[in-house]
Model the fold of this input.
Amino acid sequence: MSPIIGGDDLLERRYINKFRALIEPFGEFIKYEYDRATIDLGLHLTEPSTTKKGARIENVSNTRVWFQLKGLHEKTLTREEYEKEDFVSYPIKVEQVKFWYASPEPIYLTIYIESMDVFLSEDIRDVVDKKWGESILNPATLGEQKEVSLRLEKKSVLTEEHVRNMSRHRFLRIDGPSFRGRTLGHRLDPLRCSLEPMEPEVFHAVVMRLLEEHKYKIEETIDPKTLFPDGADDVAVLLYGTLHFTYEWVHQFTTEFTPDSSGFSIEGSPSTAQGKCAVLIHSKVSNHPHTEASKEMIEVIKNKGVEHFLVFANLEIMDNIDYVAPFVSAQNETDFNVGVLPQGLSELAFSILVATLVYLDFRDKISFKIINYLWS
Done:
């Protein structure tokens, strides 16, 4: 008797070919030689680019995603039944769901709907988080249950834009040294590194990204040119707003670099800010602020109900004490009871290196003057 190719086999063949044709332009395929990981197919994503002559090319990225493919026959889910709900359910073994959820790389549950000729595809973590979250890994959550029904929303139809947006996924090596139990994805010591001066636009972009990650909501933007009456070349901006997450930094001059005979070295005390906050971003430093102008600015800030004043300067603070003095004098003379000691390139190095996503986005645009490493 000849082997039989059934309806399920024919459907699987069709949707696998359709799926490969859909995602092929966006990366290089990865496939296990033996199906032991219960993951059908991987894609090493590429990024569109152009050569100096304008030719279109694709650069291989650092992002890989995986897909577990399933299919629903038209007779199993008709068009009429599909249109009744905002989601499609599919049964999956509990142990498989746990394995996918804990995977270090994103796995997309992807279901082909034959009646609609579309794929629904969602990151398994998003699917699980809507119902159980991390608790799915706790044996007590599902008890002896062997199978769960996962819901994919109909708005998750797989399109070219959907695949291209998968480049948002990040991958970190977590086998290296940690910083206070935190995986940084690099070996640089946040407390003992210092940055080289940056191009003004890069410096501004870095600070703005850090503020964005700390949910700083800008309410007013002002040109602080009165601070630098002699500085026609200075580039700076003054912001007023609310800092929703606590921003933390450490002034490097309070940190010991050389450990004693027992291996101990003092770490500088952290400073923090949260709430109503003024922010000065001095991206190009040609001149130091004037003391009287600093006093007037702090008075204005106080009258606006500001609780903190963060000053970011594109220079090394320890090499430019004259830059710090006007702010300190102004603070003392105006009774402004929050610190306005500027943060320079060493302090910014700390902020960047503990904000891993910011570091990853700017590591090809910044360089370090001082580098010290963390070791396991």
